[in-house]
Amino acid sequence: MDVTGPETDWRSTNFRQKLVSQIDDAMRKAGVAHNKSSKDMESHVFMKAKTRVKHRYLFPEVTGVSKEVLNNLQK
């Protein structure tokens, strides 16, 4: 996940949509299945997060996808 840029970039629609796509990819590669869609999960995390760092930190917790898998999507 690309988390570079100003603190407000993580709130943009483009960043959030990119993240939803990356969650889909990570869940598919990790073989993780959920009842909620990746868009629902991203919305849940977005509502809970107050900062970009917290936003990124919450994803493995909510999706069940390891940080390593999410980090590999950046490459």
TrEMBL record:
<dbReference type="InterPro" id="IPR019087">
    <property type="entry name" value="Med15_N"/>
</dbReference>
<comment type="similarity">
    <text>Belongs to the Mediator complex subunit 15 family.</text>
</comment>
<dbReference type="Pfam" id="PF09606">
    <property type="entry name" value="Med15_N"/>
</dbReference>
<dbReference type="GO" id="GO:0005654">
    <property type="term" value="C:nucleoplasm"/>
</dbReference>
<keyword id="KW-0805">Transcription regulation</keyword>
<feature type="domain" description="Mediator of RNA polymerase II transcription subunit 15 N-terminal">
    <location>
        <begin position="8"/>
        <end position="53"/>
    </location>
</feature>
<protein>
    <recommendedName>
        <fullName>Mediator of RNA polymerase II transcription subunit 15</fullName>
    </recommendedName>
</protein>
<dbReference type="GO" id="GO:0006355">
    <property type="term" value="P:regulation of DNA-templated transcription"/>
</dbReference>
<keyword id="KW-0010">Activator</keyword>
<comment type="subunit">
    <text>Component of the Mediator complex.</text>
</comment>
<keyword id="KW-0539">Nucleus</keyword>
<dbReference type="GO" id="GO:0003712">
    <property type="term" value="F:transcription coregulator activity"/>
</dbReference>
<comment type="function">
    <text>Component of the Mediator complex, a coactivator involved in the regulated transcription of nearly all RNA polymerase II-dependent genes. Mediator functions as a bridge to convey information from gene-specific regulatory proteins to the basal RNA polymerase II transcription machinery. Mediator is recruited to promoters by direct interactions with regulatory proteins and serves as a scaffold for the assembly of a functional preinitiation complex with RNA polymerase II and the general transcription factors. Required for cholesterol-dependent gene regulation.</text>
</comment>
<keyword id="KW-0804">Transcription</keyword>
<dbReference type="InterPro" id="IPR036529">
    <property type="entry name" value="KIX_dom_sf"/>
</dbReference>
